[in-house]
Amino acid sequence: MKQTKTIIASAVVLLISQFSVLSAAQAAEEISPEKAAALKPFDRIAFTGHFNNLGDASDEASKRADDKGADYFYILDTNSVSESGNWRVVADLYHKDAPKVSPKPVLNSVNGVSGVKQLPKEVAYELEPFDTVTVSGLFHSQPDVIQAIAEAAKAKGAYSFFIVRQIDANNGGNQYVTAFVYKKDARKRVTQSPDAIPYNSDAGRAALAAGGAAAKKVEIPGVASSESPSRDVGLFFQTQSSTGKRYSVTLPDGKKIEEVNNVTAAQMTPFSTVTFTGHFNSITDVSEEVAKRAADQGAKFYHITRQWQNKSGGNLTVTADLFK
User: Fold this and answer.
1) Which stretch of 65-79, 102-116, 222-236, 296-310 has the lowest confidence by average pLDDT?
2) Integer Cα distance of 273 and 258 in angstroms
3) Which Gene3D superfamilies does the UniProt entry name for this protein (predicted)?
4) Number of domains in the chain
């Protein structure tokens, strides 16, 4: 009798195991960014839910992809919907025999739109656009977005375009997309490195005094950063994600303290360092606290060198270099 029970139990375990393997085999598989970029999706889904981590969101995407008959999926975006902890997840879906996408747009054809060229960011930011175009709607894939923008660019008489903004309009999956459009003879923008030394800093004045190669590392007031797009055309909210200037904190007394990035800070010599601990709700709160302490010591610039979470209480300890 005991042997019979053992045999039955083993058979049940085997059946459960086979069922699990079968279920796993049927689940849609998440693919790499490289594979997703090479394939054309047949649909795009968006859903909202409470997920503890990216793995949970991926599991839900897999189930929904399965329901749509997809073999593969790729998560394009995850972001918080509200303080409730809900996430909005956007994913592209692919069949096993998904058609391949052209690796990059070619000069005379962008998804079938003759004579319009899509520019990479590094090229687009070097040129001055003559206008912008905006399209909106439900796009099932990125190639569909490019197709719509390319058609709008062609209607404007553009030689090339660069997508500068692409946002979700609502939970239904609609999007607003804006692109700069360029003439064939678009003039070059005058830009400078975002890593340039502040001209009004001690380090900047010393470099200018030294002249030569050192002076070339100092920023020129009023010249745009090569990392920011043109401000001469289009509406600010459609074309700009930031002011294009160095991040700064304005204190209650009107004094402005600026943050420098890693590369810029490496070219400057700090005159002091501050370290403090506290409970902060955001990186903005951290920056404001650093700026207050920087102003107290007569600094104009700061660079946060380290942040670490304390094991007890959730407090954050911050260290920053200060510069004049």
Assistant:
1) 102-116
2) 15
3) Flavin-binding protein dodecin
4) 3
Same structural domain, 288 and 211: yes
Contact between residue 42 and residue 98 where contact means Cβ atoms under 8 Å apart: yes
**Residue, of 53 and 85, whose pLDDT is higher:** 53
Domain final residue pick, 48, 76, 101: 101
In CATH, what number is assigned to the domain containing residue 274?
3.30.1660.10
The C-alpha angle 140, 144, 149, rounded to 5 degrees, equals: 135
What is d(CA 189, CA 187) in angstroms, rounded to the nearest whole number? 7
Q: What SS3 class is residue 225? A: strand
Q: What is the pLDDT of residues 184-223, one digit of tens each?
A: 888 888 877 777 888 888 888 888 888 888 888 888 887 7
Distances (CA, A) of 47 to 53, 60, 163: 15, 9, 25
Tell me which residue range forms the domain holding 290: 192-229+246-323
| Size of the chain, expressed as the number of residues it contains | 324
Q: Do 163 and 202 fall within a single domain?
A: no
Say whether both 87 and 164 belong to one domain: no
Radius of gyration of the chain (CA): 27
Look at residue 254 and tell me whether its pLDDT is greater than 80: yes
Residues 93 and 142 in one domain: no
Tokens coding 174: 């609609």
Burial of 73 by CB count in 10 Å (0-12 exposed, 13-18 middle, 19+ buried)? buried
- State the pairing for strand pair 29-30/72-80: parallel
